[in-house]
Design a protein that fits this description.
The protein is mostly helical. The protein has one domain (17-61). Helices cover 84% and strands 0% of the residues.
């Protein structure tokens, strides 16, 4: 590959802004996902405790 051609493609790649919106959406989705993980774990453990309590009430193991 020609050095000038590689340089031109690299410059064109860094000047192109058509994918920036998609990247921003991916970053926002990842941030929301990371923020929701602890809440899912908290709710899941709370539900497990409730089911255990109900099971014990009805004579489960």
């Amino acid at each position: 590959m020609n050095y000038n051609l590689a340089r031109q493609k690299t410059v064109r790649f860094f000047k192109c802004e058509s994918g920036t919106v998609a990247v921003e959406y991916v970053v926002m989705a990842a941030a929301m996902f990371l923020a929701l993980i602890p809440s899912f774990l908290y709710v899941a453990s709370g539900i497990g405790v409730k089911f255990s309590t109900i099971s014990d009430y009805f004579g489960g193991s």
